[in-house]
Every structure is written in C-alpha cells, then in structure tokens.
Please model this.
Amino acid sequence: MKKISSVEEYIENNAHFGEALTILRDLINSTELEETVKWSAPVYALNGKNVVGLGAFKKHFGIWFFNGVFLKDESNLLEQAQEKTKGLRQMRFNSLEDIDPNAVLAYVKEAIGNQKLGKEIIPEKKGKTVIIPKELENELKANSALFDAFKTLTPGKQREYCDYIDSAKREATKASRLEKIKPMILKGVGLNDKYKNC
Model:
C-alpha cells in the first residue's frame, strides 16, 4: 500500500470511487470527529480515540467502525471485518447508489455516542509464560550468577533463549547452544539484540 500524507491524496489514489469517498468524507466531517491519516488511510477520531475510517479497494469501498460491535445495526448494514476481529465492523458499498446518507450519518453519530460512553474493546495482552527447557534449568540451578542474570532479562529475551535451546533436536546441539548463550546471559543481552540494533 502506498504511503499517503492527506485524505485528498487517498481519494485521488482511489479515483474509481472518488466521488463516493468524498460524499462519505463530507458526511463524517459534518460531525465533531477529527480527520487524520493513519495506516495510509483516512481515520476519524474523538479525543484521540479512533472511531471510524474510510477504505477503498478494487471492487468495494466503505466505512470501518473501530468499535462497531457496540452499534445496534437495526438496518443490518454492518459486516464483521474478519472472523478474528472482535470490535471492528464495516459498512461496505459497491457503488455510489448504495450510499444512504441518512443511515450512514446515523451510524456515525451512534459510534460517536458509544465512544463518549467509553464503549470500546480493549485488546487483550497475551502474556506468554516462559517455559525453561530442562538443560537451561539445570544450568541455572547450578550457577547462581547465571540464575540472577537470567531473572533480570525481559520475558521476551528469556523466551528467545529458551526457544533457542528447546528448538535443537540433538542433545549435543543443546549443550553447545547452552555454552554459547551463558556469557550473553551474564552480560544481560538478548539472543537477537545484535540484529535488532541494525
């Protein structure tokens, strides 16, 4: 997707739906929402919180409601974006004639009302537990300095080391990998830090 710097540029790049996108944009801009560009697409926010967005594709265009799951959808105009999306809903159109300005505005205003009420899906933080392979665990038990250094690492760095040992198929490989990472752990660096700082 080409990076854009303005909503005008987005509409220009999607000229096949230019007139329709302009109508939707004008409807949304008639509300109190603030127009921004995020993820190279028009997004409309209230007090810094994303409420709706505009999107155009080859054969359709539409409005994305970031917390659309809370909309009543009495006119049955919304679709779930993907199975895995919890809050996002979309109002999809194939042509200019599909747009009912009154319905669009009613949905946008309801979305604004929901945002003011604080109705939003908060993404769950997936806390992955660190499973320490027995080879590393034995080494940590035998070496208190290594144990202390390992515990000060972030969970992500701990996981990298554990996965590195665990992914080796042969015992000899596990042992050689363990010898390689011990000085790194003692220095407090992550397994892949040298690549991340490039």
Summary: Residues 117 and 191 are 45 Å apart (CA to CA). The helical segments are 7-13, 18-29, 101-116, 134-142, 144-152, 155-166, 171-187, 193-196. The chain has eight helices and six strands.
